[in-house]
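Subject: complex prediction, re-run

Hi both,

The earlier run crashed halfway through, so I resubmitted it with identical inputs.
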Amino acid sequence: QAPLIIAPSVLSADFSRIAEEVATINGSGAKWVHLDVMDGRFVPNITFGPKFIKDLRPCSPLVFDTHLMISEPERYVELFAQSGSDFITVHSEATVHLHRTLQLIRSCGCKAGVAIVPSTPVVLIESVLDIVDQVLVMTVNPGFGGQQLIPSTLRKISDLAQIRQEEGYEYVISVDGGINMRTVKEVVACGTDAVVCGNAFFNADDRALFVDQMISLARE
Ligand code: DX5
Ligand code: ZN
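This time it finished cleanly. Structure:
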């Protein structure tokens, strides 16, 4: 069993000191950096765009996991690919031609992810699971950090793990929202490979210790 992947979300970082904040991710033992892009339309908040990610690229050797919470993400896939994203994840609810959008991400040289909000069932993405590298199960309604995990989302994690096994797929299952030392064990037990941590990571007194403890809790 591979160790749990921790993906700190820069959404909870202090943007005025972003390079320092990213340096603490680099030094923490986390393997991914999670980049939450919000457009004020698909979700009721606005964050940053491709330039921000491009500027951060030289600051970190880690995997850049870009989570697009934007309407019609297909219009911006190429730009986010050029910004140095490794994964580009789009919401199934935000694009009409989801299959085409995922193919576009791969054709730009990135790994393709599909995300679902708490009210979207797994069945709505079943027909694209053969062409994705990551499935992101939102465990809160997207838009803000620091919310509480919604328990009804957990079943989707186990369903995705079961489908992966039955069909021989290889996607990474990740969860996003309300993940901390109290909730990590349950999501890992359901079959999660990667956890996004916003507030829990950035509020930890010792971020490296936090990552260590999360990985240990996942092993128990
Ligand atoms: C929520 C974002 C998350 C967020 C998670 O809309 O997609 O990535 O940063 O933050 P926490 O871990 O604080 O719930
Ligand atoms: Zn996210």
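The longest strand covers residues 32-38.

- K.
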